């Protein structure tokens, strides 16, 4: 300021007046640029929708949300009694949906208006540049529509039955290795085993390749890398998505890490794709199906690559996390009772024939308790608590409010799944009987863990089947035993190891498998080994 006053004082010549005008102009321009680039919200407020108080310049409401966004948003929604509100993440305006009924209204009743997805700087500009956008990260356009329709071919009830061998080989391998490890060494944290089940399922479906040895170095590398990539989609790990200034900082570590992980991922994905093409005549896979058409179908190789990356990333973490939560719940105080109840019910359904039950759970979901248990597990733990963002592609009206086109909307599945006005006072408890009753709760979509509406998870039925078969096979052959020195944390918020991740996974706990009848375990395992001989031979360790 004193500099400008000084200049004014001595601005006797025309030249210095010009200099002064130039400097003031430059300052004003810089301030304008600063405002437009980093403070001005990208969209105007939605008239009539409550705004979350406490927004500050540059940060918006981000600071007040701390490191656990879904829980903070859920708490604020209850505090202010706003099931739906808008807030600012940096300069991005986002509408959050936090209750069961409002989720139904926005994501199901108005699903055609919410079919689009917005683009985010980190994920879309840094991570996804070379393999292209997956279905789950792509805006709605002809390419996305075509790819989504093709994926649905692999997710129909007959298609799931046709690929039951994949559920067989992976649930068998998981139980085989957990059993042999815990028999020899005592309790173990099962997460890596459930992750391998999930990763293998998606790589088998996409590329007809799997990992058999839990200690294969590439498996560990892939598990780490996919976790890093997924963190780029989280709302609270990526300031640069919301605060444009952060993008300008030199040595932005997150951006460098994003590029690096994406480059590494592409190397192994390209290898898997090539393997699948090489084996196109002998092995069934999505890439192989495509290669056999000689590119004459509606899809091209880029489409296929994107579809497969999407299936691997969409399925791997979610199934892996939810499957380890099955073991966690079976290790709780009531876990033993639930195991016995399921075992008895399955014995009743399959006339005491364990081998028949062991095979049938791949093809049908006849145990009502088993179905309810998995449904409740998914409701209790929204492993992706904030559903990937949507963007309104047309105007619609909700509760008298006109929601315009171009608004970013995020469903807080954790909040909607724990909405006491829908699920009752025990909404925060794990009640595996919840979906056995004939009431308004036992009604699709049951919960919002798979998202909802036009862009909901394409693999709902497939995921339910994988989880059901895993649960039933475990209880048919084994008693899951807790490790008293490492009990699981089963609270729906505190269970998560890292509340900043996009997909939550459970904190370490210990469990072991005790056979109900060792001879029967061997018998069932040899049934799987024989039926899945060919799938087992697709393991990278044997090629
Ligand atoms: C417990 C298991 C799973 C959970 C909790 C889950 C959850 C989700 C969620 C929350 C979304 C976003 C939905 C939305 O915006 O409304 C999604 C999308 C998607 N999921 Fe899943 N998922 C699971 C398993 C799988 C599996 C096994 C696959 C593939 C084999 C898969 C493939 C996809 C795809 C392709 C999309 C993108 C859909 C689109 O944007 O049109 N998911 N999933």
Automatic annotation (TrEMBL):
This is Unnamed protein product. Its cofactor is heme. InterPro entries: Cyt_P450 (IPR001128), Cyt_P450_E_grp-I (IPR002401), Cyt_P450_sf (IPR036396), Cytochrome_P450_fung (IPR050364). Heme binds at residue 457. PANTHER family: P450, PUTATIVE (EUROFUNG)-RELATED-RELATED, P450, PUTATIVE-RELATED. Belongs to the cytochrome P450 family. Pfam families: p450. The lineage of its organism: Eukaryota, Fungi, Dikarya, Ascomycota, Saccharomycotina. The chain crosses the membrane at residues 18-35. Keywords: Heme, Iron, Membrane, Metal-binding, Oxidoreductase, Transmembrane, Transmembrane helix. One of its GO terms (molecular function) is monooxygenase activity. It comes from the Eukaryota. The keyword Transmembrane helix applies. It comes from Ambrosiozyma monospora. The keyword Repressor does not apply.
């Amino acid at each position: 300021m004193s500099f400008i006053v000084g200049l004014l004082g001595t601005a006797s010549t025309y030249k210095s007046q010009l200099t002064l005008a130039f400097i003031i102009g430059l300052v004003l321009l810089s301030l304008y640029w600063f405002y437009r680039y980093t403070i001005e919200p990208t969209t105007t407020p939605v008239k009539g929708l409550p705004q979350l108080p406490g927004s500050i310049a540059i940060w918006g409401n981000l600071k007040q949300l701390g490191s656990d966004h879904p829980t903070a948003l859920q708490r604020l929604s209850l505090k202010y009694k706003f099931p739906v509100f808008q807030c600012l993440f940096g300069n991005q305006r986002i509408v959050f949906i936090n209750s069961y009924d409002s989720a139904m209204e926005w994501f199901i009743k108005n699903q055609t208006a919410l079919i689009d997805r917005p683009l985010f700087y980190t994920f879309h500009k840094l991570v996804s540049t070379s393999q292209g956008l997956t279905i789950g990260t792509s805006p709605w356009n002809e390419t996305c529509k075509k790819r989504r329709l093709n994926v649905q071919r692999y997710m129909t009830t007959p298609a799931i039955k046709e690929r039951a061998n994949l559920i067989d080989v992976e649930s068998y391998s998981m139980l085989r290795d957990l059993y042999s490890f815990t028999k020899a060494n005592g309790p173990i944290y099962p997460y890596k085993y459930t992750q391998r089940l999930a990763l293998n399922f998606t790589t088998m479906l996409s590329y007809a390749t799997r990992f058999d040895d839990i200690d294969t170095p590439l498996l560990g590398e892939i598990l780490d890398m996919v976790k890093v990539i997924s963190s780029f989609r989280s709302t609270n790990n990526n300031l640069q998505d919301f605060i444009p200034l952060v993008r300008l900082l030199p040595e932005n570590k997150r951006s460098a890490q994003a590029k690096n992980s994406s480059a590494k991922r592409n190397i192994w994905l390209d290898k898997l794709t090539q393997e699948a093409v090489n084996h196109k005549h002998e092995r069934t896979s999505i890439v192989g199906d495509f290669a056999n058409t000689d590119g004459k179908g509606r899809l091209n190789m880029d489409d296929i690559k994107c579809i497969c990356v999407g299936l691997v990333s969409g399925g791997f973490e979610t199934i892996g996390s939810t499957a380890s939560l099955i073991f966690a719940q079976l290790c709780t105080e009531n876990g033993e009772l639930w195991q016995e109840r399921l075992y008895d019910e399955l014995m009743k359904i399959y006339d005491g024939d364990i081998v028949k039950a062991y095979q049938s759970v791949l093809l049908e979901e006849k145990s009502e308790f088993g179905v309810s248990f998995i449904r409740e597990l998914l409701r209790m733990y929204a492993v992706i608590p904030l559903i990937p963002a949507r963007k309104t592609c047309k105007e619609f009206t909700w509760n008298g409010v006109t929601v315009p086109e171009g608004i970013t909307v995020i469903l807080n599945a954790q909040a909607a799944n724990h909405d006491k006005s829908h699920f009752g006072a025990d909404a925060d408890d794990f009640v595996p009987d919840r979906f056995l009753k004939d009431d308004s709760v036992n009604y699709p979509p049951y919960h919002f863990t798979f998202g909802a509406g036009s862009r909901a998870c394409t693999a709902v039925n497939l995921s339910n089947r994988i989880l059901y078969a895993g649960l039933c096979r475990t209880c048919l052959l084994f008693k899951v035993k807790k490790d008293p020195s490492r009990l699981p944390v089963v609270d729906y918020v505190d269970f998560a190891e890292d509340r900043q991740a996009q997909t939550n996974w459970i904190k370490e706990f210990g469990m072991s498998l005790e056979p109900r009848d060792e001879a029967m375990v061997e018998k069932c395992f040899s049934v799987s080994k024989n039926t899945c001989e060919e799938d087992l031979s697709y393991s990278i360790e044997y090629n």
